[in-house]
Amino acid sequence: MAPSIGDEINTATRSYHTTLNQLILQFLPPSLPPNTETHDLYALGISHYHSIYSAFESSFRQYIFSTASPSRTKEILHSLHIPQLERVEALGNDISLLLPPSHHAPDPTQHPRLEAFKQHIRKSLAHKPHLLIAYTWIFYMALFSGGRYIRSKLRIGFTSPHISALSQRQLDEQAGLSFWNFPGDLDGEDLKTDFKARIIALSDSLTETERDDIIAEGVHIMISLTGIVREVAETVPKEAAILAQQPILAHERTHLKRPVARIRPPWLILLRYIFPMGFMD
């Protein structure tokens, strides 16, 4: 039986996320109250990840639901697809809640690394759809384990359970934290177990060349994310400063249950470590 391709991705990228796991514990506290003022930097930051998730999730759906003739790769990827794991809709809802419409999508002229990565995703997946295995493993597993820890810290500053009879999930939705939650009574733990089992099952079906491709793409993803976060650190504070000076029409935020917040630059440090931390579980 071949080793899990997920485990092989973890091994190949370990040098990247081991250090990041340590740093997140160092930089997380300054990113939370009392240092938190508003949520704009957080929201602007996750808008970058919305575009990344959208790029690979749309390619995933397009490929497995296309009318092209059945193929071995399509069969493998169809077995991996779990709709409840998809994050684009949740991210979009959070961004719509936290930002005015004019700031929902990053300006491509200001984010060349992000744009280059999105183009790489589309081009690579069109040529080698089996690389979707690397994207789903890294970006979905990131939201468990390390992602759970981050969510617990976000809830401290973003929600007010003591003044509401709503469930924690409803509070998260109102606070713009839907991205971190999954449907079902087990909050996604069943989805994680199912997904990891599917990864193990399909690992035997991969050729040696496909495995090498997937592992190499996992490394490329990590390198690209590092560059994108550096870009975010350079550009988002400027965008947030501009946003802070713009008048916000009353109708744009009447749906919010609490004052919209702006988060100081340490949030950008936190965003740097979200994804690599989570997929080791």
Structural features, described:
There is one protein chain. With 281 residues, this protein is mostly helical. It is 64% helix and 0% strand. It is globular, with a radius of gyration of 19 Å. The model is unreliable at 249-269 (pLDDT under 50).
Outline of the structure:
With 281 residues, the protein is mainly alpha-helical. The protein has helices spanning 5-27, 40-64, 72-80, 88-98, 112-127, 132-141, 146-158, 168-175, 189-203, 208-245, 266-278.
SSE order and pairing:
Elements: H1 5-27, H2 40-64, H3 72-80, H4 88-98, H5 112-127, H6 132-141, H7 146-158, H8 168-175, H9 189-203, H10 208-245, H11 266-278
Helix pairs in contact: 1-10, 1-11, 2-4, 2-5, 2-10, 5-10, 6-10, 7-11, 10-11
What is the total tally of β strands? 0
Question: Which class do the helix and strand fractions yield?
Answer: mainly alpha
Q: Which residues form runs of ≥5 with pLDDT under 50?
A: 249-269
Percentage of residues assigned to helices: 55-70%
Kindly, what is the distance between the CA atoms of the first and last residues, rounded to a whole number of angstroms?
21 Å
**Mean pLDDT score, rounded?**
80
Largest sheet: none
Order of helices and strands: HHHHHHHHHHH
Outline, from the CA principal axes?
A: globular
How many individual helices?
A: 11
**Beta-strand level of the residues, as a percent range?**
under 5%
Index terms:
mainly alpha, 11 helices, globular, 64% helix, 281 residues
